[in-house]
Design brief:
The chain has 368 residues and is mainly α. It has helices at 33-43, 57-73, 80-87, 98-111, 116-133, 143-151, 156-172, 201-210, 216-225, 274-279, 296-305, 314-326, 329-336, 342-349, 355-361; strands spanning 3-7, 15-21, 24-30, 246-247, 252-255, 266-269. The N and C termini lie far apart (103 Å).
Length: 368
């Protein structure tokens, strides 16, 4: 049987090896001529090279670059292995102690103005990671290990973002060359996702009636403007929304950058009309005062005293769900400041409330 090397006429795989078997012509095409020649010699029984001496097209290109470099520098190819052994370090000799790296990362977060809650969150994630994985040198951690870790925990997406940020910081410091969590895949697990809990109109009326009058403006901003609790309720001395940030004449509320969760100023305009009656008592107080009548801890006690079940972020979820019909999706997303845009909003809040209930919700007014 004769094998011949020729041109296939196919621009993607221009080289082909042809042979005739039982009167029928056979072809095998290749992108690179070297691969076609190697196949031809193999089929002809010329097994002149063992596998370890056969190179892929990519490897041949790299080898040529190394050869050209050696020629330009006046060194022989035999010197290359010695050079690699001298300058390419073992991972065990590289990197940085995990605890020391975490300490610098947390210090950097704090220096860049991260919130107390954010710093505590990252610290907890990194502490759990260390407890479970026992990492000593960050350079020894691989993407394969990262994927196994993500597969073993309950909230892999959150952990991937947090740990990815930490290892990205390590890359920026040149302690490691690659982020093991950057390309790590999260195992896809199909599970039922419950819709966010929202308050009914009756529950909202009941709650507002049961809390002290000085707390009603705060509750109204949470319920009828969707402001995040951390942006209005002081925790550990954090800067929060002040009365002077409310423009009663222009009917708008400004969430300053230092108050906003995402550190970007947010101006809330064209809010539901009922909110302004709830905010009227604030005019009698000083502009430099916090809108909230006390700390986050006091607010928790105020909520508990009503004996009404209030799941996490229920006021923001309620506002989003009712405002979808009352204010329109686009304007609601703008007020909420959703970084993810309409997709995230529709996924969580669309269809949780009716048009009729939305009108009732934003018609709730203080009792005289």
């Amino acid at each position: 049987m004769k094998y011949k090397l020729g041109n296939s006429g196919n621009p993607n795989c221009p080289f082909e090896v042809r042979w005739n078997l039982y009167g029928k012509l056979h072809r095998k095409r290749f992108k690179f001529k070297g691969d076609a020649e190697l196949y031809l010699r193999q089929m002809q029984g010329e097994d002149f090279l063992s596998n370890e001496f056969r190179f892929s097209p990519t490897e041949r290109v790299v080898f040529k670059e190394i050869k050209d470099f050696c020629q330009n520098k006046g060194i022989s190819l035999s010197d290359v292995c010695g050079i690699l052994a001298k300058y390419v370090k073992d991972p065990k000799d590289c990197g940085k102690d995990y605890s020391a790296a975490v300490a610098e990362f947390i210090e950097d977060l704090t220096r860049r103005g991260a919130r107390d809650a954010t710093v505590k969150y990252y610290s907890a994630i990194l502490r759990l990671f260390q407890t479970r994985e026992g990492v000593k040198n960050i350079a020894e951690y691989s993407q394969d290990a990262a994927e196994k870790y993500l597969a073993s925990i309950n909230s892999p997406a959150h952990s991937k973002r947090s740990l990815g940020s930490f290892f990205a910081f390590c890359v920026s410091k040149k302690w490691i060359s690659a982020n093991p969590f950057a390309g790590a895949k999260i195992p896809r697990v199909l599970k039922e996702v419950a819709a966010p809990s929202i308050l009914t109109v009756a529950e909202t009326i009941d709650f507002l009636a049961k809390i002290p009058p000085e707390w009603q403006p705060t509750a109204a901003i949470l319920a009828f403007a969707g402001v995040r609790p951390i942006e209005i309720l002081p925790l550990n001395g954090a800067v929060v929304l002040k009365i002077q940030n409310i423009d009663f004449d222009a009917r708008k509320i400004t969430i300053p950058a230092e108050v906003s969760k995402v550190r970007r100023v947010r101006i809330l305009e064209n809010l539901p009309e009922n909110i302004w009656q709830w905010l009227e008592p604030l005019k009698a107080r000083g502009g430099a005062e916090n809108v909230a009548a006390g700390s986050y801890e006091i607010w928790r006690r105020v909520k508990s005293s009503t004996a009404i079940a209030l799941p996490k972020d229920v006021f923001r979820h309620s506002f989003a769900s009712y405002a979808y019909h009352y204010l329109g999706a686009e304007h609601t997303v703008e007020i909420l400041g959703h970084v993810g845009g309409f997709g995230v909003f529709a996924k969580h809040y669309k269809g949780l409330a009716t048009i009729a209930d939305s009108r009732k919700y934003f018609s709730i007014l203080p009792t005289k």
